[in-house]
Amino acid sequence: MSQTTLRQAYEAAYGRPHSKKAQEEDSRAFDLSCLFQRAFGISRYQLPLVGEQLADLEKLSLFQNLCARYEAGEPLQYILGEWEFFGLPFYVGPGVLIPRPDTEILVEKALELLAGTQTPRIADLCAGTGCVGISLAAHRPQAQVYALELSPLAFSYLERNIQRNQVSVTPLLGDALIPLELPPLDLVVSNPPYISKEEMEQLDPLVKQEPELALYGGEDGYRFYQRLPSLYFPMLKPGGAMAFEVGYRQANHVKAFMEAAGFQRVGIQKDLAGIDRVVFGSKPE
């Protein structure tokens, strides 16, 4: 029996029966290429050059096992154990929310809000992997960043990601709705749980594997947005700012909550798809 080549290994994985719809084929091809690279250390774009090489049997077995987990419905990011966000690597796995490109809009807006502040103090609420706070610390090395997370399991990822990216971030285990004592802040950022009960029931099976604690925002999805602005308004310096990631139909409601808490110049930032993604405002000076 002839040994499998690298090309045959990839083609066999791609040709396996699966439940993906036609419009998801491009995504599936990308996902499988990530698994292929993890197992063999070779991207699928190199296949034309090395495809006829024989596959190492141990690496082939690893690739087949990774593909089996993927076809069984496990999120790609959990299988890989890491994911990139804002150009930085982050450990991910069961028990922590997977960083998504939409959240990069929150980081971009936060950096814009911090322009002109030399040594900002920042609080990242509901930090999860720490992707927001760590990205801010990486781009503003003089910043003092506090990352607050309630889940002990997610907190372990937060600590590991701080170490991995070698940034100055203080991890804090606690509930964002019960503020800890912090020095006066220049910026509060948060990507809080914001999915409503109705939306939770309709979630994609892949998303349902992520922790409910990081997804469910109460009956209407506004549990955190209703409370965080007024809780953290007193903790901001005059002229300090607050910025939230929001769900695709939530921006105007969150804007109203911030205005009611006393924030001024409250605005909405769209993502690359034109969807209202970030709501931000500032404390009067």
Gyration radius, rounded: 21 Å
- CATH C-level class of the largest domain is Alpha Beta
Strand order of the largest sheet: 5-4-3-6-7-9-8
- SS-derived structural category: alpha/beta
Distance between the termini: 77 Å
Overall outline: elongated
How is the biggest beta sheet arranged?
A: 7 strands, mixed
Portion in beta strands? 15-25%
What integer is the average pLDDT? 94
Q: What name does CATH use for the topology of the largest domain?
A: Rossmann fold
CATH architecture of the largest domain: 3-Layer(aba) Sandwich
How would you characterize this protein structure?
It is a single chain. With 285 residues, this protein is α/β, with parallel strands linked by helices. It folds into two domains: 6-72, no CATH class; 84-282, 3-Layer(aba) Sandwich (Rossmann fold). The chain is built from 13 helices and nine strands. It has helices spanning 6-14, 25-40, 47-50, 57-71, 76-80, 104-113, 131-139, 152-165, 197-201, 205-208, 212-215, 223-232, 251-260, and strands at residues 82-85, 88-91, 121-125, 144-149, 169-173, 185-190, 236-245, 264-270, 276-282. The strands form two sheets. Strands 5-4-3-6-7-9-8 form a seven-stranded mixed beta sheet, with helices on both faces. The longest helix is centred in the N-terminal third of the chain and has 16 residues, at 25-40. It is elongated. The model has no long low-confidence stretch (mean pLDDT 94).
Attribute tags:
285 residues, alpha/beta, Rossmann fold, 2 domains
